[in-house]
Structure formats: C-alpha cells, structure tokens
Amino acid sequence: MAEIILEGVTKRFPDGALAVKDVDLDIADGEFVILVGPSGCGKSTTLNMIAGLEDITEGTLRIGDRVVNDLAPKERDVAMVFQSYALYPHMNVRENMGFPLRLAKVDKATINAKVEEAAQILDLTGHLDRKPANLSGGQRQRVAMGRAIVRDPKAFLMDEPLSNLDAKLRVQMRTQISRLQRSLGTTTVYVTHDQTEAMTLGDRVVVMRQGLVQQIGAPAELYDSPRNIFVAGFIGSPAMNFLNAALEAGVLRSPVGDLPLDDRMRQALERQKAPREVIIGLRPEAFEDVALAHDRDRTGPAFAATVEVLESLGSDVYVYFTAEGGPATTTELEELATDSGLRDTGAQAAQQIVARLDAATRARE
Ligand code: ATP
C-alpha cells in the first residue's frame, strides 16, 4: 500500500517563516490529489516535505507503512516531476529516462525494457535517440514523466509540471496525465495554482491559503459546497459573485432578487445582531433570461444592471455588470442577444441588461 498520511505537519523555515501549518491529510493508495492555492500558500513546501527535499518541523509523515520524517529522498521511493523537467542536456531521451535505474544499478537489459515500455506509453518511441534541446516542450515534459514512470515508484509528486507549456498543449497534457495516472494507478500528489487544472485532474483537491488547509474534497464538492468565502471565490471560473444582501422578514433581499432561506440558515442569521447584512455567493450561471434591456420587456422578478464589459470567448459570452450590491458576472446572456451584433464587445459598456436569478436559485431552500 502506498498511502501518504500527513498528521499535524508543520514547516517553519530557519528565518522564522511559518510556511505550512498543522496539515492533516490522508491520501489513499492510488489516489490523485491536487494541492492548489495562490502563490506562497505553502503547496510546494508541502510537496517538498513529502519528497524529503525539506525537513518537517513538526508532525508525522507516513508513506506506505513507514514513518519517513527522517528518511532521505532516495529512500522514500517517490518520483518527483518538476516544472523545469530537470533533464540532462548531454543525455539523449533513452539515457535521461533510464538514469534513475542506472543510479540504482539495475542491469542494462532491464533498463532498456523499462525505457522502451515507458516510451511506448508516452508516445516517445521515435525520439529515444534525441537530445532534450531537439524536443518540443510537450515532448520534454513527457520525458520527465517517463523518467518517473520507469522507477515504478510508490508515488508521483508533481510540482506545476505543465506551467511551461502553452495553453493548448497544457490541456492536451492534462488529459494525458489523467489517463496515465488512472492506468498506472500510482498514488499522485500534484501541485498547481490553476484551479481549472485542480478541478479537472484530481480525485480530491486540497485548497490551501497562507499555510493552512481551507478545504479538502472532490471537485464537485468544493464547487457546490465551499466551506468559506475564500474557497468559494477561488474555485470556479469566472469566479463566484459576492453581493451584499439584507435579511428582512425571513427573506434575503438582494439587489438581484429575493432569496428564500431554509430554517437552519434563517435561525443562524436571526441570532446575529442587527444590522442583518449578509454576503451572498452566486455562481455566474445562477442567472437566466439575461438580455440587453432594449431587447424585450420583462415580467416576473427581474433586475436591471449596467454592463461594464462584455467578453466574447466564442462559445461563451461573459457579462461583467454592476448591481447595487457590487460587481458581478454572468455567463448566461441569451443566444438571441449574442447574435445581434454583440460579439463586437468593447462597444457594449454602459448598456443595460435585464436578468433574473434562475428558477433553481430562486427556489433553493
Ligand atoms: P508558488 O505557487 O509561488 O510556488 P507555493 O504555494 O508553492 O507558492 P511555497 O513555495 O510553499 O508556496 O512557500 C510558502 C511560503 O514559505 C512562502 O511565504 C514563501 O515565501 C516561504 N518560503 C519558501 N521557501 C522558503 C525558504 N527557503 N526560506 C524562507 N521562507 C520560505
């Protein structure tokens, strides 16, 4: 079993900086776990402690059935894949991929067989005799993956492995890594600052901020039930809207419409002292019938707002608007409106939209 268990893991650097605070995390054998958060939140330091590249100040780290706090990196049987790939420029692909096995004094025939097998998986068979300088970014990244695979380690530890690739290649490699991890079934811990990568790759995602774990959960769980405003705002693109609202007679009055409250929330809010101001979080897709104000007359619980910017991404249009409770975004501009010349975006500022909360949100208890 190659589970990875962190109990109360803390890192204080010699200069006093507290980079990681009391992290508890159980990673199951074969699980793909993503550490995500803004720059400086402690995700690389956490990964480096698992790899053995940083000492652990406090807490216990187990890999498989061993406590590894005091084991050197090479004794932990984990393979690291870095953003920089860290390939040797003077070695060809075959030698780069076989290097960890040569270090471990594995015999030549076995090394060859393992390298060939990994090259097959990674579609590198035709490039085995090339030097890294003669490979594309995506191919180099695959060589770095290959070097990790040949060792058949207990775990893969990946630190932003895709961040040097262009956007298109990043999406391709993301799919490859996902497929590869599933077929090998190797426990994987993957660091990224990119919430899209986190949401699409991981079985579970650990959201960190300022050295503290904010929430651990499956991607859908983080999206649907964020535990705090930070997670709510960090996960999802475009980001969740936060608007000021007030509690009045058991209903939340918001600038974009009234929202019902379930009993638990109503009681919790009523226990608070006046004024009963709250922040509501609405996903950009929580609106419907969004249209330019002149497009049609509205009936029902609608609101009007001023458009700041319209961004057309081809398939989607993002509408950035200002409601009374603050700025907000929606992705739900109606097809009808988008067809009528709206793709010419810059000119759309200062237009009015009318919209309403979608039925599911209006009815949500
Ligand atoms: P990034 O996405 O920018 O790489 P990160 O989430 O991986 O960020 P870490 O590199 O783990 O963050 O750093 C966490 C904190 O620890 C930061 O405040 C950083 O400045 C600090 N830190 C990192 N390495 C050291 C060090 N060697 N000495 C002192 N402080 C450090």
Automatic annotation (TrEMBL):
GO terms for biological process: carbohydrate transport. Residues 4-235 form the ABC transporter domain. One of its GO terms (cellular component) is ATP-binding cassette (ABC) transporter complex, substrate-binding subunit-containing. Keywords: ATP-binding, Cell membrane, Membrane, Nucleotide-binding, Translocase, Transport. GO terms for molecular function: ABC-type transporter activity; ATP binding; ATP hydrolysis activity. InterPro entries: AAA+_ATPase, ABC_transporter-like_ATP-bd, ABC_transporter-like_CS, ABC_transpr_MalK-like, ABC_transpr_MalK/UgpC-like, Mo/tungstate-bd_C_term_dom, NA-bd_OB-fold, OB_MalK-like. This is ABC transporter ATP-binding protein. It comes from Streptomyces flaveus.
